[in-house]
Amino acid sequence: MTLGSCNPGRKNYFKQGFPIGLLQREEDDGRKRLPKEGNAPEGWHLPRKYLFSITILALIIVGMVFFNIYVVGQMRRGAQTPFTQNPTPGTVVTTSRTSTTALSLNQILVPANTPDSLSDVPHYCDAPQGCVYHWHIHLDIYVNSSSYIVIPNNLGHIHNQEYDLYVIHTHDYSGIIHIECCTPYENKTFTLGQLFEVWGYPNFNQENCLTYSGQPVTVYVNGALWTNGSISSVPLTNHEEIAITIGITHPPIPTSYSFPPGF
Questions:
Q1: Average pLDDT for 244-249
Q2: I want to staple 174 with a disulfide (CB 3.0 to 4.6 A). Which of 48, 57, 97, 236 is the partner?
């Protein structure tokens, strides 16, 4: 038997000088590289060790999408803290804008007791023409040198409803007071006394503030002691820092407030 007759298909290769051993290795390698028709190579699959990593990556992407759509959207609308229907008295509440001084004190939340109607404070206007002006004032209230009053996030919200509110109102616990006013009140100046009316504590004077009575009450505007009349007559104007002290002692009085962009 000749060598060519052992495998007729290799006869020509042998005659051309190809070593049979080399030819065998090339054919074997070729078979290994050939995938099944229309499919991945035989035995191919995604290693199980990668499944966990891919799942985690997918969850991270979903979380980032949620954060950008919901959380960032809420922040841009000024809702720095979720709206609370019934805040609990004495609850400690802070935001990213709570001052260092306030954080060092005992914090007291005095809930809003917003009345259904007020004769001298109009309701918020959502007319198509929009507000004539939208101002922001920051309010700090200190009780002696030990406590800080947290401004409720639903001040000015009638029946604790998020969109039924007075022109003087809040949207979070930061102490930022919003005044959104429309025609025919574009020339009206609102006062600190009216803010306390909206809060539900209209008896605001040199000896009464919120639930505190019989202690001296003092007001500072941009760090300066208010001496131009009763403290209830302090006008609320854009980007003011108003500090109220209840009692004889108090921490350092702020002279300004850093309002967030867009305020």
A1: 95
A2: 97
